[in-house]
Amino acid sequence: MIQKISPSVAEALQDIAEGSTILISGFGGAGLPIYLLDALVEQGAKNLTLVSNNAGNQGVGIAKLIAAGQVRKMVCSFPRQPESGAFDDLYRAGKIELELVPQGTLAERIRAGGAGIGGFYTPTGFGTELANGKDTRVIDGVNQIFEKAIKADYALIKADKGDRWGNLTYHGTGRNFGPIMATAARCTIAQVNQVVELGALDPEVVVTPGIFVKRVVLVGGK
Length: 222
Fold this sequence. Notes:
Elements: H1 9-13, E1 21-24, H2 34-43, E2 48-51, H3 62-67, E3 71-76, H4 85-92, E4 97-100, H5 103-115, E5 119-122, E6 136-139, E7 142-148, E8 152-162, E9 168-169, H6 178-183, E10 185-195, E11 215-218
Parallel strand pairs: 1-2, 1-8, 2-3, 3-4, 8-10, 10-11
Antiparallel strand pairs: 5-7, 6-7, 8-9
């Protein structure tokens, strides 16, 4: 019997090792897996590379991990936000690395990783510092740079509903990066607001099929 429901958040994260690369869903607070991130702080894995839309703020979520000294590198589009002091201070002190990626490029690099594609050419970033060291070509008269796909050891995502096979649905804008991140990680862990019986989710509304999900954790809707 396939059973992907984890009995606790702590158990779902227990094998995350030092030096792991982790995809984290969310656009601001929407779709951010707060319970999983809080548990990862408690779990204590260090030297992590985090791939997310931003570097966190207000001392919660990703910012909490950064403040705890567990993050070696951030790959994101918006490292600075209101009250993003944890990242700002460590970056200025040279204690955390940053790979800045335009948001559309970030999404496509993750999607490519999930699709098994090595990378792609894009005009975004050509002629800027973001193109340094990257292969360039002229395609249909347009200067473009090569961007490598992103794959990760883990993806921590937030969904709305899930079943014991790992099928997931999302609520509104909370969907954002979750579906593509689920495909690009060796182990996807989803926090959900509700666990439903098999068959309760209409296949037509399942966004992330269970084949991409290893663990589902029921949380309190945070």
